[in-house]
């Protein structure tokens, strides 16, 4: 099986269907929700340890921002249609010798 066919058959990247968008959306939702839960629990523990009440809210905000950051870094928040497996094409560039130094 060729490399192109293998990359098209990855989970969440079915060729010719809208499954990738749904799976990407679920991944974004999971990153953000998971970040909120984990960092809220860390904030709750620190609130109980230090007798404060605001760290849990800071933890929830940090978790949401961290989840969105992870989604962005994984390329899940882009509205552009992705092509291939995210790899750069191999070989020389097609713009000719004008950019050669």
UniProtKB/TrEMBL annotation:
It comes from the Bacteria. Keywords: Membrane, Transmembrane, Transmembrane helix. The chain crosses the membrane at residues 21-42, 54-72. Residues 1-22, 78-101 are annotated as: Disordered. Residues 1-13 have a biased composition (Basic and acidic residues). This is ATP synthase protein I. It comes from Arthrobacter bambusae.
């Amino acid at each position: 099986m060729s490399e192109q066919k293998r990359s098209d058959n990855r989970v969440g990247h079915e060729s010719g269907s809208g499954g990738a968008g749904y799976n990407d959306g679920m991944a974004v939702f999971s990153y953000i929700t998971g970040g909120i839960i984990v960092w809220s629990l860390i904030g709750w523990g620190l609130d109980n340890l230090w007798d404060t009440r605001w760290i849990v809210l800071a933890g929830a905000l940090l978790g949401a921002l961290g989840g969105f950051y992870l989604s962005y870094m994984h390329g899940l928040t882009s509205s552009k249609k992705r092509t291939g497996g995210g790899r750069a094409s191999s070989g020389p560039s097609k713009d000719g010798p004008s950019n050669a130094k």
